[in-house]
Design brief:
A: alpha+beta, 3-stranded antiparallel sheet, 5 helices, 9 strands, globular, B: alpha+beta, Gyrase A, domain 2, Elongation Factor Tu (Ef-tu), domain 3, 19 strands, 33% strand
């Protein structure tokens, strides 16, 4: 269920680290909790992220939630396809990325949970 | 997601059935209720195109009986209950002397001297106390909170009648909208009411709680070939909003009058007296200071309950309901605004977490079912 090549936060975001770049999305658990996603508000390229701080919002039919940065850094790309296909977040949460980030500190990503540890937090 | 409730949640007679169906349960009005089964969008669309099955047993029932029952109902509610015949229901409001909502209710005439009010789950105790205090002003009347005696199951959608008809000998084609009949359904004695809260044709079925699961399962089974699915409170909310039906606690409460809520059609203006009549008569003559309107977002954003309506840089109103609706596929909502901003076509902005998003006033209801 939770790919082993991703790192996870307690706020249910994932990040895939590739060199100095992190690719960010939300987890299967998060999309399940949200229900049908209808709108995702993301930052602009060039925006600065601080770990643990909100970087956007995600809305389902019933609720709005904040997206929290899993790492600090600078936004280098934004997935604009999500605007027209927000339901992809539900159908393929771990393949639907939201933003790419130039990492400010690679150590931050190392400290995040691996798949097994993340799954363990969902068990109770 | 982080709801914590100090008092234990009440469970309807169908609670175990919801859990068995894999429903996601949430606290609502003091009850542990199913918010969704397969997903709000799928359930919403099923109700618009086929049928949905809802547990609305959390709703309350308060009965008034005795020689003065009609006078009591007339005194405490706005609509003209003298127009009801046995077997007929009407939408109405339980009002304060200020013309504001204690609750919005359905009034059923069971018999000439016996009325049943269906009230909102979170208001049962408040309404019962209010009615006990004020109904006797019209004369001696028996008042019973009979909420525990009824489970309430709603079957809603274009296929609803065919599905319910499979399980009852009552000829449903003879029952008009907002009428009801007593009879057996799935072998259980109950009351079949052609009412609902979705904007579709449908039925609300009162049965004794001990037989609720039997009726629920029979309806699920009978409806399966027709595309009926169990539907939760999430879909119920998006469906009622598309149909522009008000929700107590969101769109109306003790700070909004019946006219401000644009429900003048549930006021019996020719009645000699009812609680709040003087205020409503005056507002009818002089106008209201705020009025509920329907709006559609022009910018890509979803307005939610509590967001401020802005005009010329100032907060002038408030959003009462808002969502992205699965059938119309638009962000819509309702808001209280000054009368100057209430005309269809008027644009204003809504402060959505600091961002100003444009919206335009549109006619309500947002969705109207096609004529059969």
């Amino acid at each position: 269920m939770y790919p082993s090549d991703l790192k996870y936060t307690k706020d249910h975001e994932w990040v895939r680290v590739d060199g100095g770049t992190g690719t960010v999305g939300i987890t299967h658990f998060a999309q399940q909790q949200l229900g049908d996603v209808v709108y995702v508000e993301l930052p602009e390229v060039g925006a600065t992220l601080t770990i643990g701080q909100p970087f956007g919002t995600i809305e389902s039919v019933k609720a709005v939630s904040e997206l929290f940065a899993p790492v600090s850094g600078t936004v280098t790309a934004v997935n604009t396809d999500i605007k027209d296909r927000p339901d992809a977040v539900n159908s393929a949460p771990h393949d639907t990325w939201m933003i790419k980030v130039q990492l400010a500190s690679p150590a931050e990503a190392d400290a995040l949970m691996n798949a097994a540890d993340y799954e363990a937090t969902l068990a109770h | 997601m982080n709801d914590t409730t100090p008092t234990p949640l009440k469970k309807t007679a169908l609670h175990a059935a919801h859990v068995a169906l894999g429903a996601r349960m949430v606290p609502y009005g003091g009850w542990d209720m199913p918010v969704e089964y397969s997903g709000i969008t799928a359930e919403h669309l099923a109700v618009r195109t086929a049928a949905g099955l809802f547990d609305v047993s959390h709703m309350g029932q308060i009965e008034l009986a005795g020689p003065n029952a009609l006078a009591a109902v007339q005194h405490i509610t706005t609509n003209d209950a003298s127009k009801l015949q046995n077997g007929q229901a009407q939408y109405s409001a339980l009002t304060t002397p200020e013309g504001t909502f204690v609750d919005d209710v359905l009034v059923y005439r069971f018999a000439e001297k016996h009325y049943l009010l269906v009230v909102n789950a979170s208001n049962i105790e408040k309404d019962h106390a209010w009615i006990a205090a004020h109904a006797p002003e019209a004369g001696e009347v028996a008042i019973v909170n009979s909420s525990d005696r009824y489970a309430l199951i709603a079957v809603q959608g274009p296929k609803a009648r065919g599905i319910v008809q499979k399980l009852t000998a009552v000829d449903l084609s003879t029952i008009k909208y907002y009428w009801f009949a007593h009879g057996e359904i799935a072998g259980v004695r109950g009351t079949l009411s052609r009412t609902g809260y979705t904007g579709e044709d449908g039925w609300e079925i009162f049965v004794p709680p001990q037989f609720a699961t039997q009726v629920w399962n029979a309806l699920l089974e009978a409806g399966k070939p027709e595309g009926l699915v169990p539907a939760g409170l999430g879909a119920r909310d998006t469906l009622r909003l598309e149909a522009a039906m008000r929700l107590y606690g969101n769109d109306m409460d003790e700070t909004s009058t019946v006219l401000e809520c644009d429900l003048g059609w549930i006021v019996g203006w020719n009645k000699a007296e009812f609680t709040g009549k003087a205020v409503l008569d005056r507002q009818k003559a002089e106008g209201v200071a705020k009025k509920i309107v329907g709006f559609e977002m022009l910018d890509r954003a979803i307005a939610r309950h509590g967001h401020a309506v802005m005009h010329d840089g100032a907060a002038v109103g408030v959003v009462t309901s808002g969502t992205h609706t699965p059938f119309l596929k638009k962000a819509i909502g309702m808001a209280y605004v000054p009368p100057a901003l209430a005309a269809v076509g008027t644009e204003f902005t809504i402060d959505i977490r600091g961002r100003q998003a444009r919206a335009v006033v549109v006619p309500m209801p947002f969705y109207k079912r096609p004529k059969a």
